[in-house]
Every structure is written in C-alpha cells, then in structure tokens.
User: Fold this.
Amino acid sequence: MMAIKILGAGDEAALETFLLLHRHASMFLRANARRGGLVDRGGRYQGTYAAAVEDDRIVGVAAHWGNGIISVQAPGAASEVVRAAVRESGRRVNGINGPWAHAVAAREALGLEEAPMRLLSREVLYALDLSDLVVPDALASGRVRCRRPDRTDLSELTTWRTTYRMELEGYEAGPELRASARQDVEHLNAEGRDFVLVAGDDAGRRLAYSAFNAALPDVVQVGGVFTPPELRNRGYARAVVAGSLLRARAEDVRQAILFTGEGNVSARRAYEKLGFVPVGDYGLLGFV
Assistant:
C-alpha cells in the first residue's frame, strides 16, 4: 500500500537510492538535497520534499523550492506527491520541471491547466560520458579559450543572463529581471560554476557563456548557455560548453547532463557534435 510522506533528516539515503534509478532526469533533486538537506528552512537549495512510499521504498518524489518551482520525479505518483509538497510548503507555484509526462501530470493535479504561462517547453534530455567529449578545433587550437569569469565580466554577463531569461524562459524585461539575473550570475560565480569563452588573443573579448545549474562530485548539468545574437552560428556555444566540461573532467567529473528544446535544432546539433546522446525527455513549465 502506498503512503505519502514529507521527507526530513534521516531520509537522505532512501531518496538517493530512488533518484539514482532515474539519475539523468533528477539532477536538481539530487544536487539540492546534497547541498541544502531535506529540512526546509527557506534557504537556498532547500525545499519541501514529499515522497510516495511503497514497501518501505520511495517510488516518487516532488520538491517545492523556495523560488516556487517544483521539481518532480514520480513515475507512478506525480499527482499525490506534488499536491502534498505544495500543501506542506504553503508556497505559490511558479513553475514545474521534471520528465515531461510527470511535469504535465503535476500541472493537471494542481488544477493549473488554464493558468497563464510564460514557458511550456518539451525538452530533449541528453547525457555524455566525459571520456567521449569531442573538443572543437577552435578550442583545441587556442583560437578561443574558456576561463572563469571575474568581477570585470559581471556587467556584461548580467546583460546576457537577462536576455537569456527573456528568450528562453519567457520573462519580461525590467529592472526586477535584471536584478534577478545579476543575482544568478553572482551566485554561480561565487560557487565556481560559470564559464566564459573569450578570444584566444584577447581575454577581455567575451564570446559566450555557460554554467552548471546542478553539480555533484561525479556529474554536472549544463545550463544557461548563451551567445549574444551578433556572435551566433560561429560555434562559440559549443566551445564554451566543451571548455567547461574539460575543466570538470580535470576535477574527476565523469558525466554531463543537459536539456534543450525539441525545436531548437541548432542547439541540438551543437550538443550532439560534442558527443551528447539523447536519453529521454524533460519538461519546463513556467507560470505568470
């Protein structure tokens, strides 16, 4: 018989055992649980976790984060765990992510089918064994290079992040969005999880940006990849992702995950040229 349980301290091993069965599509859940724990005190990386438990094993889970986003990994109990997490957290629902079918089921379970949306995207989920990474010639030859950003990069990267969130996440321009974008970049930079591609002969000439939106000791999830419009279609996005993954590989990371829109043909081709292979689907839902 299945029961719904709010997770807390002591449930970490059971949660990780379940999520490892679905590791490609569970990076936000795994990484946040590791960084923030399972007790929701409102801190960064923390959320309210609700799990479906059957025969003393977790069979589904949803977490409602402090930013209002729900992450779900629930092959058979998406409706139940999502409703429990939202009820327990008391927060507004600002978005949902997880395997496409789970995310859509979660929206239906919460009665949000008619809610106005800023984002509804079915994504292709990709994985790459870093031993199979194909390094672009421009990066291998030194014509471009990948480095960690510093404070002098912050203003331009904030502008890029603002544009990224408008183009890919459906946000409207304004001072609140720019402030949020700046905070994003500052957090990623402070945690050593962002990268900028620059010209090989000019370290101040920025060409593209990438980050790890979730990271564990052996696997990273690539996100926030951006090239300014005037520099697109030159292979810079592919090069900055490759550069970031070379750095990760040097630190003993073995695998990378990412997702991109089914209709984003240019991005899919770029990632596949790096060696990424499709391993499933993913859903990104954002509410106004």
Remarks:
- The chain has a mean pLDDT of 97.
- The chain has two domains: 3-115, 127-280.
- DSSP finds nine helices and twelve strands in the chain.
- The longest helix spans residues 154-169.
